Structure formats: C-alpha cells, structure tokens
Amino acid sequence: MTTELTLKLDDIDLNVLSEMVYEENRLSTFFKNGQGLSGRWPFLEDCNCTPEKMATAGFFWCGSESQPDLVRCFVCLKDFEGWEPNDIPKDEHKRLSPQCPYVKLGKEQENCTVEEVMELCKKSVINFIEKVFNTQVEQYTNLAKEISNSLVELLGESNMDVSD
Q1: What's the burial of 82, exposed, middle or buried (CB within 10 Å: 0-12/13-18/19+)?
Q2: pLDDT digits (tens, 9 = 90+) for 134-163
Q3: How far is Cα 163 from Cα 33, in angstroms, rounded to an integer?
Q4: For tag attachment on the chain, is the N or C end more exposed, with fewer CB atoms within 10 Å?
Q5: How far, in Å, CA of 27 to CA of 50, rounded?
Q6: CA distances (Å), 48 to each of 17, 36, 45, 99, 154, in order?
C-alpha cells in the first residue's frame, strides 16, 4: 500500500516544489508548450531577467495575470516581484535573500554535485515545513484570541488571557 503525502501551504505544494530542484523544470514554468504565454513571464528577450536566467538563479514562475512577474526560489521559498528589465536575477536573489542556501552555495546547478543538490532539497523541505508550522501556529493563536474574546463577551469577564 502506497500513501502519497500531500502538504500544501497557500499556493506552495510540496510535490510541485520537489520538481523545482531541476533547472529545466523551473524554466518550463515560464512557458507553455515551449512558447511564451501572454500573461505569464513578461521578460522573454533583450533583457537581463529572461526565463533562462531566472531559472539559473533558482527561481520558478508562480505568478498570475495580476502578478505576471512573481517568482519563488525553490530553496528559501521567498517570493520576488517588481522585476525591471535590467535586474540581474542572481544579484537580486543574493541581495534580497543572502541567507538562502542556494545563494550561499554560489554554484549553478550544472556545477553542483549530487550531494549538494540533495542538501538543497533537504533545506527546501525544511523551509517548507517551517512555513507550514509558523502558519499553523499563527492560525491557532488567532483562533484562540477569537474564542477568548467571544468568551469575554459571553461571560463578561475581562481577566482572561490567552496570549501564551
């Protein structure tokens, strides 16, 4: 019996994330059927932030019609948008997420060892689990506050504290 683990946080799916370790998979997110798609990545040529350079810098496209230049790093899971044609993806990644393990490694995928790629995968999953955990804690904390406020209103007691 096989059980597939599907963890999802907002729009980050662990199964999709695991495919983004491969540069060619990241690159394919910027295109549909090998052709640039209007409403997808707005910088296809004659600029620094082409899909190829974005994928090499560790990014995959996760945007929408309203956010056509939104990308995410497959390791640190940080989102980046507001790209300008002259932005250099590698430099922007390093500037805005200097602690990212992919940035710190300082190598393009083609120069990485299998061990280095596996370490990046591990760090990506750890970052994902931390995001899920932090989101869950925030949701439960907010729910506890709502319940506490409801109880205060219901019982008229103002000395209840659920901040811990």
Answers
A1: exposed
A2: 888 888 898 999 998 888 888 876 555 555
A3: 51
A4: N
A5: 10
A6: 25, 16, 8, 23, 60
- The C-alpha atoms of residue 99 and residue 127 are separated, in whole angstroms, by 12
Residue 67, SS3 per DSSP: coil
Cα–Cα distance, 13 to 15 (Å, whole number): 5
Count the neighbouring beta carbons within 10 Å of the beta carbon of residue 28. Answer: 17
Model pLDDT for residues 31-78, shown as the tens digit of each residue: 864 444 444 788 887 899 999 999 999 999 988 888 889 999 999 999
The residue type at 97:
S
Question: In this structure, are residues 58 and 73 in contact, taking their beta carbons and an 8 Å threshold?
Answer: yes
Within the chain, strands assigned E span 8-9, 12-13, 31-32, 35-36, 59-61, 71-73, 79-80
Give the type of residue at 153.
E
Q: Look at the domain 8-155 and name its fold.
A: Inhibitor Of Apoptosis Protein (2mihbC-IAP-1); Chain A (1.10.1170)
Cβ atoms of 93 and 59 within 8 Å: the answer is yes
**Calpha distance 89→55 (Å, rounded):** 9
